[in-house]
Amino acid sequence: MYTSPIPPGKDLKLFQPKKNTVLVSHGRPPWYGEDGKHIGNAFVIGVAGGSASGKTHVAREIVRALGSIPTVIILSQDSFYKYHTPEELALAHANMLDFDHPDAIDMPMFVACLADLKECKQSNIPVYSFAEHQRLAETKYLYGATVIIAEGIMALHDPALRALYDLKIFVQCDSDLMLARRIKRDVKERGRGVEGILNQYLRFVKPSYDNFVRPTSSHADIIVPGSNNAVAIELICTHIRRQLQERSNQFRERIAIPHQYIKSNSGSSTPPPTLEDLNLTVLPNTPQVQGILTILRDRGCSRQDFVFFVDRLSTLLFEHALQHLPYVPKTVVTPVGADSHGKQLDASHICGVCIQRSGGALERGFRRVVRDVPVGSLLIQSDLTTGEPMCLQVMLPVHVRYRHSAENTWVFLLDAQIGTGAAAFMSIRILLDHGVKEDHIVFVAFLVARGGGISVLRHAFPEVKFVCAAVDDEMEEGWLEGVQDEITNPGGIGRKVWVMEPGMGQIGEM
Amino acid sequence: MSFASPNPSSTTTITISAPQATCAQTKDKNLPPNVFTLPQTAQLEALYTIIRDKETSRGDFLFYSDRIIRLLVEEGLNHLPVLPRVIETPTGSKYEGVGFEGKICGVSILRAGEAMEAGLREVCRSVRIGKILIQRDEETTQPKLFYSKFPSDIAKRYVLLLDPMLATGGSAIKAVEVLIEHGVPAERIIFINLIAAPEGLLNFGTRYPTTKVITGWIDQGLNEKAYIIPGLGDFGERRYCV
């Protein structure tokens, strides 16, 4: 089974979801509860069937029909062809290597990658080049799908793989129809002769289908015809939608939107948490820090002053935050020839992640303190109607993308303030999903609202360090006037927001 | 005063409503009370370890010495007065804060003191900077003033005196003497340096007990050539790569 190249043309591309890519429609809502733990795995669908039976078509139709599902990956079995020895490579280039045998697929890796994605972890899947007939050195990073569709002729072959599926589909097609499609495709798209295609078909494809592929149809939950299958796909999508709806209904009340847990000031029986309970690392309240905060909080502060003092304050914050990193003794020789017994940072990787937009305000201070530090970004916006945080973009530094290095990486999360804590909650969860250790996360913000989402955060993630310049007492419900924007907010509608008092206003605006 | 004496209790977990300086005033009874050090944290010790190492590249030396200089300047500024100031926040509420009071200027003791000007400017925008050149007179072996250039209104300003290394204290004492001649009261001078020898602190503090000294680290002492041990070599040379 070869990946058919996506035909050129913009309109077609829109309707042909790419394989091995996270497809995003409107952002990813929380996938975790108020305790910070996952509330469910991704929904995994396995699609098997003969070569040219129409598996990819079925997968794409499902994605298209689901429409509003936030994040989908179509994972292709083709990525998991094994690494070939030079002898195999020679056979492959002579079209003599059997790609249709189960042994051609690196099943343990296929299972491992799919299992990671199902558990909402990142996965770096191999990249296979059909031009070189070889697995390439690079890998492709995938993260954050709610629905995963694994497709390939052997998708239902391996028991470990089958155990991961929530729904197993077999695409059934007549052999003569599959051969006809195959000849048509290979002649048209790959410029190959009919003779060669038939040779390959009779030697590998047909025996493989009869021996390995067709028998796996007995494992399928549903068998879909390879043509004229609109009704079958409609039925499948109805089933998937209902399954997803049931999950979300079941977990709706447990979804973590920290400000839903904020007690209102009136009629609250529980006193606001004390600073000791919150265990924040607060910058020493020196005259200079007080003066800087006064300038920044002033509504009359000029943009120029704001930028200068934001840089100064964030530099101080990061100097203070660095105390959370580990240090070990080190002895050096000074230019005068004397031994000096000092200390050395004991962290293999350090990186930062900015929560956009206002987290960017801290970036310059961070770079002044940590030399040449890689800084990634997360775009999290709240949904205009539900108020839920939505993850729109994940751009993480390379050390976090790979699980083995993420486990030894210290990550500084940058955001201007922790109010409702919704974006902070989601970004910490994203780092944990990648394998970053909880006690290796240092959250740095200018302001934290004592009565805000920080207590939910503290409860869910007790090991995360929170560093801030000041703690404000209150959160108040406010109204943010909508700015008319053709794309994000065509009606120019305002929305309810939580505002910190006395606060610093909208830091990202400056 | 031993070199390796970090104070690990640097984590502040509560807000303090009254202003406080981060400096722990030195506990050593042999040193004058006007000497303040930066909090002796593990990360500060790690910064010093990098700049002390003779194998450290010039790029690293610049980056990490700048980090210390910024901290020193921030600490020095904490000794300047502030006044209560009430402002209105963007949400419309009143906030009782403080406002900075008094004009400042920097004075660097050439050559090495110049290396601290960039760090000073990052913390204090468009700050005025005077210069002073003091060198040892080969005949008398005493420090001698060769050149000085100050802002005309220096007598009305607080002066941050910059010199990275305080060894015997000879040039620093001479520099303060020159500043006093220009009408700056000794108590309005804040002397900032990266590494100090106890001998120099003692000389300086005895001579000018009202001038505050902010130092990042107090070393073991001086060797027979009056180099600070363990020190970091010649700061200006390592900084400018001459």
TrEMBL record, chain A:
Protein name: uridine/cytidine kinase
Domain of life: Eukaryota
Keyword Transmembrane: no
Pfam families named among the record's database cross-references: PRK, UPRTase
Primary enzyme class: transferase
Gene Ontology terms, MF aspect: ATP binding; uridine kinase activity
Keywords associated with the record: Kinase, Nucleotide-binding, Transferase
Automatic annotation (TrEMBL), chain B:
Domain Phosphoribosyltransferase: 39-240
This enzyme's EC code(s): 2.4.2.9
GO molecular function: GTP binding; uracil phosphoribosyltransferase activity
Primary enzyme class: transferase
Gene Ontology BP annotations: pyrimidine-containing compound salvage
Signal peptide: none
Keywords: Allosteric enzyme, Glycosyltransferase, GTP-binding, Nucleotide-binding, Transferase
This protein's record includes keyword Heme: no
Pathway: Pyrimidine metabolism; UMP biosynthesis via salvage pathway; UMP from uracil: step 1/1
Cofactor(s) required for function per UniProt: Mg(2+)
The keyword Glycosyltransferase belongs to this UniProt entry's keyword annotation: yes
One Pfam family named in its UniProt record: UPRTase
Family: Belongs to the UPRTase family.
Full protein name: uracil phosphoribosyltransferase
